[in-house]
Design brief:
By secondary structure, the protein is mostly helical. Helix content is about 40%, strand content about 5%. The strands form 2 sheets. It has a 3-stranded mixed β-sheet, with no helix packed on it. The protein has a two-stranded antiparallel ribbon with strand order 1-2. Helix 7 runs antiparallel to helix 9. The longest helix is centred in the first third of the chain and has 26 residues. The chain is globular. The chain starts with a helix and ends in an 11-residue tail after the last helix.
């Protein structure tokens, strides 16, 4: 019990604030290499604390930050409202100190397999920690040791180069891959988890540097391809499919327990453990953000026959029931469309426009109504899944210029198979690039432009609401995309509307006075009050924020807190934040 109490105290020492506080804490006197780190259980207990680095419901943040999920309040990033914090702001280093302390002391016992595995766990989390810092701040000081409080040279160290940090991240991951257990585990780090992170890191940095004309980016894309191929060819994971295109994608995410055939690593939620989150409440209530899919994403879902919805000239003036009919099945498995029923229920439900600012109500992760109360949802949330890996592989190969049709068939088209969508062919994509997608990503050029646009379409659709879109915008240097007009579904004007195609009125839009004798079960929404429409009769979820901006020289990175610059004069503020 003494050791458990000691480690519990140690793991609660999550430090935030200034560098002097964060990086130089002395180890607790009761925890020494002589009485701890000698048994496998010691190593497991200590490294369990590292899992708190993982996101929980913040898995949605990458979508809300970039407007891939729209809410009643826009993110600071979307409003250009970020300011330089005095302290905090993500500049926290307590976990790193704990990880480095472990790596300096864990090789004390005689259980070689446990030492190798838990050393790999620590290496994985150090890579995960620094990848997060790299994405947020760019160059930061790199430490692979604990710092003595009198070590002024370390405490006032300048930033290390971006390439140095990435090399250290990949070095840690290679060691982790070599030493971690190969068991198929949903909730603990394994070799496959480290390979998945390497796949992600390599693609991120390779494209980040390519779109900023930094030489040497190819090395990182090759690292992503190498890790992805290892997972694709020598792991037990595959794209989950039971052969039901109309529900398999939905079922992958509304399963209480993560689907282990595809999910490589998940955050566990469980009623018995009193660990839960709020996705049902978030998506079904009118009082918690009212999240909705933006219309520009709805537009990118292809028709079921593989043709482009936006090729029709009236694509922005199509009523909901026609708009969502005969589209890529993932659309009806991500938002409410005609025929939708809650898990465990039989009643068909139209979208609840009071619970979504765009009219496109999200259903991903949503389960039975009994979990609708705030913080009652227990669906496991995927951190890494095989679907991402095949997308990483296809994109890295296409960006590198080495992609073949076989590569696409073994990656993107496997995802297409799950939902019975026609395959992508390289020649067709490159010979006829989608103008709508090209308008979204004008920086995509070259021989593989059409294919890259299709891969970006696939990625945004497949990984929706999984915390990727902000990072994708940053690495593609596509920040101007978030200044686009924000729109929802098409409303012809005041009147009665049937949103589920059953012949009965679901929603009444009105002006001036509310209709009398209102019928229970029908939604009554006042135009220019409950709902605002744009000039072409699309719902405008943010009429006060139509003039947004993105500073290309500033907004891809976050500012370093003011106190850190005072404590360490060798730190330099990120460009544009001076």
């Amino acid at each position: 019990m003494k050791n458990i109490k000691i480690i519990f105290i140690l793991l609660l020492a999550v430090l935030t604030g200034c560098s002097d506080d964060l990086l130089n804490k002395e180890p607790l006197s009761d925890v020494t290499e002589d009485n701890f780190f000698t048994k496998a259980s010691d190593l497991q207990l200590y490294t369990n604390g590292f899992y708190r680095l993982l996101p929980s419901t913040s898995i949605y943040n990458g979508d809300t930050r970039a407007g891939n999920i729209l809410e009643t309040t826009l993110s600071e990033e979307m409003r250009s409202a970020r300011t330089i914090p005095t302290t905090g702001g993500g500049w926290d280093w307590g976990y790193l100190r704990d990880i480095n302390y472990f790596l300096e002391n864990y090789q004390r016992g005689d259980n070689a397999s446990a030492i190798a595995h838990y050393g790999g766990v620590a290496r994985f989390f150090r890579a995960y920690f620094y990848f997060d810092k790299l994405k947020r701040f760019g160059e930061v000081p790199y430490y692979d040791y604990t710092i003595d409080p009198d070590d002024e040279e370390s405490l006032q160290k300048p930033r290390d180069s971006r390439q140095f940090i990435v090399e250290k991240i990949l070095e840690d991951l290679d060691v982790a891959i070599e030493n971690l257990n190969q068991d198929q585990q949903l909730y603990t780090v394994t070799k496959y988890t480290a390979l998945a992170l390497k796949s992600r890191v390599g693609l991120y940095e390779g494209t980040y540097e390519k779109y900023r004309n930094i030489s040497g980016y190819e090395t990182y894309l090759e690292a992503s391809i190498e890790a992805s191929e290892e997972l694709m060819n020598n792991s037990p994971y595959k794209v989950f499919s039971s052969g039901n295109p109309s529900s398999d994608y939905l079922n992958l995410f509304n399963s209480h327990d993560a689907v282990g055939t595809e999910v490589i690593f998940a955050r566990e939620f469980n009623t018995a453990l009193d660990v839960d989150h709020n996705v049902n409440y978030y998506t079904t209530t009118s009082s918690y953000g009212r999240p909705g899919m933006p219309k520009d994403l709805v537009n990118t879902y292809l028709n079921a026959d593989g043709s482009r919805f936006t090729d029709r000239p009236d694509y922005n003036q199509v009523f909901f029931t026609e708009e969502v009919a005969n589209r890529d099945p993932r659309l009806s498995q991500t938002i409410r469309t005609p025929g939708y029923t809650r898990k465990g229920q039989t009643q068909e439900l139209p979208p609840n426009l009071g619970a979504t600012v765009t009219g496109y109500q999200i259903i991903k992760y949503v389960t039975e109504p009994q979990y609708d109360t705030n913080d009652q949802s227990i669906t496991d949330l995927p951190i890494f899944r095989f679907g991402e890996i095949v997308l990483n592989f296809a994109e890295a190969k296409a960006e590198l210029g080495t992609v073949s049709q076989t590569d696409i068939d073994n990656s993107i088209n496997v995802l297409r198979n799950r939902v019975a969508m026609p395959h992508i062919t390289i020649n067709a994509a490159n010979n006829d690039p989608d103008p709508y997608m090209q308008n979204q990503y004008p920086q995509v050029k070259g021989n593989n432009a059409g294919l890259l646009l299709e891969i970006r379409r696939e990625r945004r659709i497949e990984l929706y609401m999984e915390n990727f879109f902000w990072d994708d915008m940053v690495r593609w240097k596509a920040g101007q995309f978030i200044t686009r007009p924000l729109r929802g579904l098409y409303v012809p004007g005041p009147g009665e509307y049937d949103f589920d195609g059953d012949g009965d009125t679901d929603v009444v839009f009105y002006k001036d006075d509310a209709p009398g004798n209102q019928i229970e079960g029908i939604q009554y929404l006042k135009l220019d009050s409950d709902v605002f429409l744009s000039e072409n009769n699309l719902i405008d979820p943010q009429p006060n924020f139509n003039n947004r901006s993105f500073n290309e020289n500033k907004d891809y990175l976050y500012p370093i807190p003011r106190i850190e610059l005072q404590l360490n004069p060798n730190l330099e503020q990120n460009p544009g934040w001076e």
